[in-house]
């Protein structure tokens, strides 16, 4: 049992929490406290309004040591660097979005990928408006926390607590065993592929450079559902290179 617990704690080390454009420093402190109680250790902030801040230290209440290890990033891409699976937390219904799953299913997916050796990120948006559409489309899944229809508003730190609890349960509570698998593509591998795909589609005149946004959003959604493996991205990049080379040779 001790070996299983140690293995579960190791899995949690591969799970990061990302808070994008947080406006209230107290929520950062409350978030690290929620994380520490559940064994999550890595928090990344994307352009927080105020950090470091005494309110964050006050709200950390016993977890202030984690604030010293918080990583501050300029972009979401930077915060997702190396992550093979990114799961956005959003209560808003969107016209286009990655596959929508329940938070418990999201935690199980995160731990499963961590067991396969991948890094995983849960992404939370600003307290005011949540995640932007562009931020959501940089993730492969959208998770929703089940709440009462009469009052569905959750504080940011409370949402982090729910996710952290579900992730800990997935890693330790059910003593689950996970099968190894081919590694998923990292965030940067996928982003390089999307950049190459868009450039190729523009060169072939399939899409117009000034009107490519909607098509690329749908393609991101399509490939997000596929949960691309690293080797699969390499194959797709190779296909694009072959097509581009063939077009250059055409008279």
Task: Describe the fold and architecture.
The protein folds into 2 domains: 2-173, 3-Layer(aba) Sandwich (Alpha/beta knot), CATH 3.40.1280; 187-249, Helicase, Ruva Protein, domain 3. It is built from 11 helices and 7 strands. It has helices at 2-12, 25-37, 54-60, 64-67, 76-79, 103-115, 133-137, 156-173, 187-203, 213-226, 230-249, and strands at 15-20, 42-46, 71-73, 83-89, 99-102, 119-124, 141-144. Strands 3-2-1-6-4-7-5 form a 7-stranded parallel β-sheet. Helix 2 packs parallel to helix 8. It starts with a helix and ends with a helix.
Order of helices and strands: HEHEHHEHEEHEHEHHHH
Count of DSSP helices?
11
Weakly predicted, low-confidence segments = none
The share of residues in extended strands comes to 5-15%
Assigned CATH superfamily of the largest domain: SPOUT methyltransferase, trefoil knot domain
Q: What is the CATH first-level class name of the largest domain?
A: Alpha Beta
